[in-house]
Amino acid sequence: MRQKIKVAVAGIGNCASALIQGINFYRTNNSDNIPGIMFADIGGYRPANIEFVAAFDIDQRKVGLPLSQAIFAPPNCARIFQQEIQEQCTVQLGPILDGVAPHMESCHDTINFKPSRGEPVDVTRVLIDREVDILINYMPVGSEQATAYYAQTALDAGVAFLNCIPVFIASDPVWEQKFIEAGLPLIGDDMRSQFGASYFSQILQEGLFDRGHQVLFHCQTNVGGNTDFANMIDQSRLASKKISKENVIRAQNDLRDIPVPKDGIYAGPSSFIP
Fold it and tell me: What is the pTM of this model?
């Protein structure tokens, strides 16, 4: 077996919970084709090679807990399908910056953030000491300052950066050049659910096209009931999210040469229903 891929995660929310559960769920499956995974083996690396060695969050209900417990702590509500988690690294306090929208502290306990008032750790030093290979950014949508902070710590520590939120780092020429000069991988921006709004839109779009219809206007609105959607009530945090989702629709259409008018796409804003 190849060496371990040591991973750090910034933001231990629902997406991080699902990912960490998934890695542990699939870790012992050595099949060539694994349901739920597009590629079970990439260059000789499999889920068993991935190990989470560091984690950062700002919520007092998660900071100080082992990662195996923090991913299930409130306000997380991701489906629990793998309770046995191998990783026991302690979640450490990262800087808040703009990671918490002001209204989130006054929301109901099941969806709010409870920021810790402690002193943040030196993230760069942790990444170096833990010999991290990849830093995954799972900050709340709209966290531009926080995302830039973690991108810079990855550069300073010599670590690859995987940006899973729609704050433009990988698609920003300045940041791109910084990572090129450092010789570090940079991937992002945003992530696509295995079966979410973007994929569902693609199915409808392609189905109509295959039946001979021309779509004149493609509108996608997103509604959810978890912390992520409550956070996005603040419309000022959604500008890059809207661009990201509309670009996904355009890319899907381009792959199939499906014509859509220039101003015929609208994605978002998000709505929150408890």
Answer: 0.88
* CA–CA separation, 114 and 222 (whole Å): 25
List per-residue pLDDT tens for the chain, 274 residues long.
579 999 999 999 999 999 999 999 999 999 988 988 889 999 999 999 999 999 999 999 999 999 999 999 999 999 999 999 999 999 999 999 998 888 887 787 788 899 999 999 999 999 999 999 999 999 998 899 999 999 999 999 999 999 999 899 999 999 999 999 999 999 988 887 778 888 888 888 889 889 999 888 888 888 888 888 888 888 777 777 777 778 778 877 777 788 777 788 888 767 888 8
Verify cis geometry, omega within 30 degrees of 0, for the bond prior to 75.
Answer: yes
Q: Residue 185 in contact with residue 161, Cβ under 8 Å?
A: yes
